[in-house]
Amino acid sequence: MTFAPEWLALRERADAEARAADLLDPLRETLGRAPAVIGMNRTPLVVRDLGCGTGSMGRWLTGRLDGPQHWVLHDRDPRLLALAGAAMTREEGVTVETRQGDLTALRADDLAGTSLVTASALLDLLTADEVAGLAEACVGAGCPALLTLSVAGRVELDPAEALDAEFTAAFNAHQRRTDDGRRLLGPDAVEVTAAAFQALGAAVITRSSPWRLGPGDAALTGEWLRGWVGAACEQEPHLAAEAPAYLERRLAGDLGAVVHHTDLLALPGAA
After folding, report:
1. Predicted confidence (pLDDT) per residue in 67-126, tens digit
2. What domain range is 130 assigned to?
3. CATH number at residue 38
4. What are the beta bridge partners of residue 155?
5. Does residue 50 lie within any of the structural domains?
6. SS (H, E, C) 14-61
7. What total of structural domains would you count in the chain?
């Protein structure tokens, strides 16, 4: 699955405000104990951003980590990789390289020397086997993983309508669909990922990271709502008859939305 740069740009501020910043304290503590960081001659942290998109995670995180950093940006889409690499190379003390390919194929040997693995809005697009492979790679390489903004399957719209629950259920079913033989995790992703890391001896911390959209977020709210309704209708075609009037009512006023996500931090060897 690929995403338009325009959509990623539209959501970047909401993503940044939603990410659970309190997970950075235990992460920084763990990174600070790494042998390459202790002492006067600090080598750069090596951060791999999986499914990097246009690099929004890097723009959010680079200034929140100490010292020099080398980011390895992974994505299937060469257009997004070019945008991400160009944006991040402007940061002082940060070097960047890009790698195009299937991030689900990464194994522990591929992560040798990696200080941190990050991803944003990725886990719900993976299967249980792919998540297990990611956990095995990170734990095998001994590197923490900060995996943010996974869909939680809960949406609160204000004002509420009776149809909200039906669209939510259909959207969640769409997120759990089988796509080209792959059974996607959707809203189950964080629970499955946490279990995979914990089974390998990692400590796991999760935090809520909701989008809170108000009157000032009309463009993002509208684009998100249309996509949310469209996915629900794809899953449950009978909803298509309700969708036009539903969208018209919802977008006519000052719609508020809380779109729930979850952030996960896994710390290998810390359980």
Report:
1. 999 999 999 999 999 999 998 877 788 999 999 999 899 999 999 999 999 999 999 999
2. 5-152+182-210+260-267
3. 3.40.50.150
4. 259
5. yes
6. HHHHHCCHHHHHHHHHHHHCCCCCCCCCCCCEEEEEECCCCCHHHHHH
7. 1
In a domain, 219, yes or no: no
pLDDT tier at 38, thresholds 50, 70, 90? very low
**Rounded Cα–Cα distance for residues 136 and 191 (Å):** 16
pTM recorded for the entire structure:
0.95
230, exposed or middle or buried, with CB in 10 Å at 0-12, 13-18, 19+?
middle
Is 252 within the bounds of a domain?
no
Res 164: pLDDT: 98
Using the structure block, give the residue that is written with the tokens 């980011």: 71
Whether 169 maps to a domain, the answer reads no
Cα gap 186→184, rounded to integer Å? 6
| Residue given tokens 């079913």 in the structure block | 173
Q: Return phi, psi of residue 47, to 5°.
A: -115, 125
| Beta-bridge mates of residue 99 | 74
Give dist(CA 17, CA 60) in Å, integer: 10
Q: Rounded to whole angstroms, how far apart are CA atoms 186 and 152?
A: 8
Q: Which residues pair with 156 in a beta bridge?
A: 258
Residue 99 three-state SS: strand
Cα separation of 117 and 131, whole Å?
13
Residues 6+ apart with CB under 8 A from 81: 52, 73, 75, 98, 99, 100
Look up residue 190 and give its amino acid.
V
Best CA proximity match to 77, nearest among 186, 155, 1: 1
- pLDDT tens digit sequence for 176-190: 999 889 999 999 999
